[in-house]
Amino acid sequence: MTEKSLSKLMDEALSGQMSQEDISQAVNQAAGNYYHSPVQKFEDRLKDILVEEALVHLRPGRVLDLGYINTLWTQALLDRGITHIDIVEGAQTHADNARRDWGHDPRVRVFHSLFEAFEPDEPYDTILMSGVVKHVPDDKGLVRRARSWLKPGGVIIASTPNSRAFHRRLGTYMGMELAPDRHNATDRSVFNVHLYDRFSWRALFVEAGYDVFALKGIVFKILSAEQLMYLSSRYDVDRMIEGLRQLGDELQDYAWYLVLAARADEEPS
């Protein structure tokens, strides 16, 4: 298999012409570009809030967790009494990390597979899609297919960055980006094929046959993660993050992340 550059793979994804081999290449190349950097570790402070808000909608029983970066989500699920978690991860290094972190725990299974190719052996009570749908070229196909993975009464909890968040708007007005909802250098480096605002995020699930019963913006992110890291060295980071959390509740359209919860309609359109 010929190795292509991530930039070329991203262009192919945006044009809608991409094979599963190419998707696998892109996922593996992008895996090391951001997710285990100091920036990601800082963003985990913000993601603690995201996890808390998202898992309000968790159902007891079997959980499918699409994607793996670190122990954050898995530990939160176990802390809430979940005893069966299936992790599916497309990047080999991330799947290896999941096996290293959880291979000793009989409550957790790890599958190295593209989401598009995954075939569950049983349906789930809850499916988590945290920051992963944006990486899937055929996002509509994945979301629609996941309906068949849910038990009756099951829910999908899905989160994604908000393309119209305050910090992306600010970067545009500062002349650093062309538009908040256009792919920037970071989006391209981590294979963010899709960008969503609260309206397009909800529409993706409604059009796939879901009843979206919750949608919320999480954390008012005033600057990039790198800039917030700098501020945290000078100011009380805990007070700053708590203030950003409360501002996110107040200014939903400008929030950093979007969390959605949905049930499968009985008769999808």
Question: What is the secondary structure topology, with strand pairs?
Answer:
Layout: H1 6-15, H2 20-30, H3 38-54, E1 62-66, H4 72-79, E2 84-89, H5 92-102, E3 108-112, E4 124-130, H6 139-145, E5 150-161, H7 166-173, H8 185-189, H9 198-207, E6 210-218, H10 225-232, H11 237-250, E7 257-264
Parallel strand pairs: 1-2, 1-4, 2-3, 4-5
Antiparallel strand pairs: 5-7, 6-7
Helix pairs in contact: 1-2
Give the overall shape: globular
Spatially, the strands of the biggest sheet line up as 3-2-1-4-5-7-6
Order of helices and strands: HHHEHEHEEHEHHHEHHE
Largest sheet: 7 strands, mixed
**What is the name of the CATH class?**
Alpha Beta
Q: Compute the gyration radius: what is it? A: 18 Å
Structural class: alpha/beta
Helix amount: 40-55%
What does this structure look like?
The chain has a 7-stranded mixed β-sheet with strand order 3-2-1-4-5-7-6, sandwiched between helices. The protein has a single domain, classed as Vaccinia Virus protein VP39 (Rossmann fold), CATH 3.40.50.150. The N and C termini lie far apart (39 Å). The longest helix has 17 residues. The protein is of the alpha/beta class and 269 residues long. It is 41% helix and 19% strand.
